[in-house]
Amino acid sequence: MKTIIVISTLMLSIFFMQVELLAxxxxxxxxxxxxxxxxxxxxxAMWQLYIELCMAGYDIESIGYSSFTKSIxxxxxxxxxxxxxxxxxxxxxxxxxxxxxGGLLCRAYLDRYRVQxxxxxxxxxxxxxxxxxxxxxxxxxxxxxxxxxxxxxGTDKNSFPKSLKKPYYPVGVIAGVVTTQMDMxxxxxxxxxxxxxxxxxxxxxxxxxxxxxxxxxxxxxxxxEVASQTIYFLxxxxxxxxx
Length: 243
Hints:
Blueprint: H1 2-24, E1 31-36, H2 47-55, E2 59-63, H3 72-83, E3 93-99, H4 101-112, E4 118-124, H5 132-137, E5 171-176, H6 183-186, H7 199-202, E6 209-213, H8 224-236
Parallel strand pairs: 1-2, 1-3, 3-4, 4-5, 5-6
Helix pairs in contact: 1-2
């Protein structure tokens, strides 16, 4: 099993390098995108967004971290250290794109550090107000297996999402909408949701634009419309209108 994972990771790495090479032949990369995955995932999980952004002419810095066994402070330290290795001065603009917890980590970084050449920020399915799913099940015995960070992603005033500041930068919010057949999920939400985060919870005071897309939480990072809307927002500071 470990051999398969290693080979798969190597093949993806080679593929990403080939995509970057192809993109570099068509555009001079003057803008960087910091790309951060969500809870329980890895950099590989963002492969489609990575490719789409790269082909749009951006230089990508994909940030990885472990989440199941780490506290939110440990995760922030890991993520911040990686971002701080970027030579920001080499780029005209630095954009941030995060899926789910990755979006919250983008906000946390920008709360702590001021990026002089900051561009736009896109939050994809991020629980900016916390998720009601955590509220409903964090006291269940099985929720302990999700680790300490999962427990601070609820909607209570002491949660990690509620500790973040109002954005001072252009930020676009993408929310997913889906109907599931799972009672334990449907019972946790009063309104529209993506299976993990309610549409209302994705919204953030001061956001520049907001859009809903028919997709579930996990599949958002593979959705073509999510990718195209993300790129459009990075370029225009707004989402394009859909029929």
